[in-house]
Amino acid sequence: MPARTAPPARAWRRLAGATAFAPVVVCAVLLATLGAALTMAEREDRATRRAQWAEARLAGETLTDATADVVNRLSDVGRAIGTTANADATFDAMAGHIVGAEPVHAIALVERGPSRGRSRGATRGPGIRVIETRAVATAPRPRQQFPIVVTARRGLGAAQGTDETTRFPGVRAALVAAGRDGRPHATPAVTRADGQGPTMVVAIPAGWRPARFVTGLVRMRDVEARVRASLAGRGRFALFEGRARLGGDPGSLREPLARRVRIAGRTWTLLVGRPRPNLLRTLGVVVVGLLLALLAGLMGRRATRRQLAAESDRDAVLERSRHLAETAKEAEERFRTAFEEAPIRIAITGLDGRFQRVNRALGSILGLPREEIEGRPVTEFTHPEDQDASRAALEALIAGTTAAFRAEKRYLHASGHPVWAALSVTVVRDGSGAPVHFLSHLQDITERRRHDAELRELADHDPLTGLLNRRSFGHRLEAHVAEVARHGARGAAMVLDLDHFKTINDTLGHGAGDELVGRVARALRDRLRTDDVLARLGGDEFAVLLPHADRTAAESVARDILAVVRGEAVTAGNGRPRRTTASIGIALFDPAHDATGEAVLVAADLAMYAAKEAGRDRWAVAEGGAEAEPLGLRFSWADLIRDALAEDRFVLLAQPIVDLDTRRTGQYELLLRMLDPDGALIAPGAFLPVAERYDLMRDIDRWVVRRAIGMLAECSAQGHDITVEVNLSGRSAGDETLLALIEAQLRATGVDPARLILEVTETEAVEDIARARGFATRLAELGCRFALDDFGAGFGSFYYLKHLPFDYLKIDGEFVRNCTRDPGDRVVIQALVQVARGMGKRTVAEQAGDAETVTLLRELGVDQAQGYHLGRPAPLADWLRLEAQPAGRGHAAI
């Protein structure tokens, strides 16, 4: 334990040293900031003092220049008048220029002497005679105390008189001093009542005449403005004469500097304030210094924390390393145990393709102990047909183009038989990204593959005879049609139908009929060649594809088949053998007509019906000639169906479906019938085969759906809460047009979609499982329900149970009809009920013919049943009327 507490103690000592260094840095920065601030403040103080001296000198020079300019102008006028005889004209000429420029606002030519009357209408004053005056604005001049000789003025107003310069306070003393000294003299500045501010008069002797003077009225506001303009707003100043303020603002002066200026015998005092120091730079230095101090403190704190964290991390790494070193062997042992005992097969494979390490489960799938597998190439255990695909996938993993490889492949067991496994492979890379080895997981799927193969076999073959079913034969037929289109006409298709087979079923039973079908199938298989294709289309109907036969060969095969069928007699109830015959239709492949496989099969089927109509126990070829007239009879059926669609000569009869638990009826199956032109009912078996062969089933299905939804809407309006089932052909499963029609009709009528159940027979549904699944899924989205009809007619349907989203499973009547006497039928029914319940679906038994059968179905767990015992097909209105009666809510048969 002491060893573990030492590292934190060292870290704290380092932290204390680093923490003591941080305040030193901060204090140094603060002291440097203070010194810089004081230095800049002192430098700024010296700068303001120099600026104050410069501004004072500039203001004094400007003031001197302004007054000197006034004296010079007035002196120029005086000299000009003194040298000319026409003083008035000279004064007028020069006064206009002088008065127009500030600061002189008025000038006058004054003569000192005794008063001798008036001149030019001016009033003479005692002792001073104004020779003439000149002003910018003229107005009626009131009588003045002194006569005016010549005067000029600007901006003083007419009410003040034209002899302003002679009446100004102190002007007499200034004239006397100027005459005595021969130099300019000025009066004290006086603040006038007219708002013009401080004003003074400057008196200058006029040339060589000592009795004449030129006086000028100067406004101090103009002099102040010139001084202010020279400073350009850089400083503040004030102008005094003695204690009287002549201009400026003394109250705003900071530490004023005084400068005396001598102006026309007067002494003025000029005060210039000291500019305020620029503290922004000093403040900026202080702010920057504080920020640097703060930054230094933060950096020191961060460095301290970082140092402490680094020390802690180093100590943690050392501690972790010690811990990892202590637990490495334990972890390795746990991994070895998990690897060896894992139920899933695991292998580590090197980049050279050899097993480096495998677990015990993998050895069991290959039939060898793991010691005999490790070090050997994977290809040694891989099926030859799967080696190329595995090699390409591993190369893609190494290149990094794929992250994982998943596949189902075959391995070779030690005994030599193949073993199917689901393989998942990933590549393990080192720190630099280079591949090190492969990690593989395997799952034994041999049994699943075997079951899948069996289900596919059942889905593609007829369970009674083992022959191909209609769907598989259709694929073979289409493939041969494509071959004919590429390489030319060859081959023939045959359709064989046993004559009077229904009579055999009705008189001898279905068991005898099944036995006859099986014997005929074996006989046909023995007669045909290995490359010929034989299939059972359904019931007693077979089909044969002769891929290399011409007409002669096809007729020869047909002749032999008829002979073979004649040899398969059945024994009647009286012990006497009953002769068996067949009718065969032949259709030759012709690429010129661009026919499909189904069209060829239809042609052979029609030829088969022609053979039956010609007397049975014979064959017919689908072409013109002797068979043309019988074939025309078949085509007339197609026309009859088209006319019935156009004239709405179809009807739907309802057969009740009874709930075996509640013994009530709320569900009906609508069965199609056709009316001939005379109004007689035609059973579906008479026209549906023709409709299928002439591609009329889609039109019939649309009529059925449209009429069924209309009947639901009528029943709902009348207050009947029922559900109906309608049958659809296999060709309509996946028909987008039909789905759109169903959706449009439901929307237009407002019928609850759950009241409509659409049935597709099991054998038709499996013809295209993808389309049937999409069809049923779309119906579920609309809200309708889906039923798989005639279930059990082919055991291949179990392959599709998990792929078809059905709601009802209708058990084929073949198992229901004799279930009270046949234990095998009861076992099948019970198994189907368990399957349906396990998937959450309901079961419906068809062809329940008596009360004993109904009771047994209830005991076996069937949910619903229908049949002649429970109700024969009748108009839906009749059933609804019966249900409306007080005793009509059940059936006596139950």
Describe this structure in words.
Helix 13 (510-527) packs across helix 14. The longest helix has 81 residues, at 2-82. An eight-stranded mixed barrel has the order 24-25-27-28-29-30-31-32, surrounded by six helices. The protein is built from 25 helices and 32 strands. The model is unreliable at 1-6, 115-149, 154-162, 624-635 and 887-894 (pLDDT under 50). The chain is an alpha+beta fold and 894 residues long. It starts with a helix and ends in a 10-residue tail after the last helix. The chain is 47% helix and 22% strand.
The average pLDDT is: 78
Q: Segments where pLDDT lies below 50 for 5+ residues?
A: 1-6, 115-149, 154-162, 624-635, 887-894
The rounded Rg comes to 64 Å
How many extended strands? 32
- What is the distance, rounded to the nearest whole angstrom, between the alpha carbons of the first and last residues? 88 Å
Biggest sheet features: 8 strands, mixed, barrel
**Biggest sheet: strands side by side, in what order?**
24-25-27-28-29-30-31-32
The proportion of residues in beta strands is 15-25%
Helix content: 40-55%
- Spatial shape: elongated
Structural class, from helix and strand content?
Answer: alpha+beta
**Count, helices:** 25
